[in-house]
Amino acid sequence: HKKVQSILYLSGVTKSFDGFKAINNLSLDIAPGELRAIIGPNGAGKSTMMDIITGKTKPDEGDVKFKDTIDLTRHDETDIANMGIGRKFQKPTVIESLTVWDNMELALAGNRGIFQTLFWKLSDDKKLRIEEIIKQIGLAEKTDDLAQNLSHGQKQWLEIGMLLIQEPEVLLVDEPAGGMTDYETMETAKLLKEISQEHSVIVVEHDMDFVRALDCKVTVLHEGSVLAEGTLDKVSSDKRVVEVYLGR
Ligand code: ADP
Ligand code: MG
C-alpha cells in the first residue's frame, strides 16, 4: 500500500476564543518518524495546537489530518488517543501511591478500569515490554518504588513510559523540561531522541538548551501561526524570531 507522507498535517487551522484568534491560519506538516520541536512565547498557541490535534478542542476552520487521510476534526479525544496519538501534559498524572511497575500496568490496562485490571493477567510479552520501557526511561532501579518517592524528572519519565506502553504512533509532549534539573533536562532530550527512532514525536518546550540537545527541525509559533521553521540556528538568527522573543 501507499507510503504515508505526513503523520500529522494541519492546514489553515483557525480557533477563536471569544473573538480572539488563539490559532490563526496555522499549517504544520510532520513526517512519519520525525522529531519536531515547537517553540514560541507564552500565549503563542502551542497548547491550543496540541488540544486541536488530540481532539480536546475543535478548530473553527482548517484541516487536521492523521496519516494523510484520517480527518481528526471528526473524532473525539478518546477515539484519537486510541488511534495512536498519545499526549503527555505538563503536570505528571502518575498515581503517587502505586509503584513504578504498577503505574505501567495500569497504563497498559488503559480504559479497562481498575476492577477488571485486578483480574487481568499480563502476558509474558507485555511484562517484558514493561521491563524494557522501565529500563529505557532510566527507572530500572526504581521498579518497585512508589511513584511518590520519585523526583519530579523521574515522574515525567514514568509518564512518558506510560504513554510508550500503549504503543502510540505519535507522541505529543508539552514542556517536559519544566522544573527539571539540568541533568534531567539533558537526559530527557536523549530519551525523546531515542523514542523518535520508533515514533513521531512533537515536543513543545521553552528551554533552549533542551531544544538544542534535541537537534531537530524547529517550528516557531507566534500569535497562532508559524513565524519560522528550520534548524534552531536558522530560526534563532531570524530577525522576526529575535524580535518576538526579545521585543516585549
Ligand atoms: P501557549 O501554550 O503557547 O502558551 P496557549 O495555546 O495556551 O498558548 O494559548 C494561546 C492563547 O489562547 C492565549 O492568549 C490564551 O489565553 C488563549 N486561550 C487558550 N485556551 C483558551 C480558552 N479555553 N479560553 C479562552 N482563551 C484561551
Ligand atoms: Mg502552553
UniProtKB/TrEMBL annotation:
One of its GO terms (cellular component) is plasma membrane. Residues 8-248 form the ABC transporter domain. It is an enzyme of class 2 (transferase). Its EC number is 2.7.3.-. It comes from the Bacteria. Keywords: ATP-binding, Kinase, Nucleotide-binding, Transferase, Transport. InterPro entries: AAA+_ATPase, ABC_AA/LPS_Transport, ABC_transporter-like_ATP-bd, ABC_transptr_urea_ATP-bd_UrtD, BCA_ABC_TP_C, P-loop_NTPase. One of its GO terms (molecular function) is ATP binding. Pfam families: ABC_tran (PF00005), BCA_ABC_TP_C (PF12399). PANTHER family: CONSERVED COMPONENT OF ABC TRANSPORTER FOR NATURAL AMINO ACIDS-RELATED (PTHR45772), HIGH-AFFINITY BRANCHED-CHAIN AMINO ACID TRANSPORT ATP-BINDING PROTEIN (PTHR45772:SF8). This is Histidine kinase. It comes from Saccharophagus degradans (strain 2-40 / ATCC 43961 / DSM 17024).
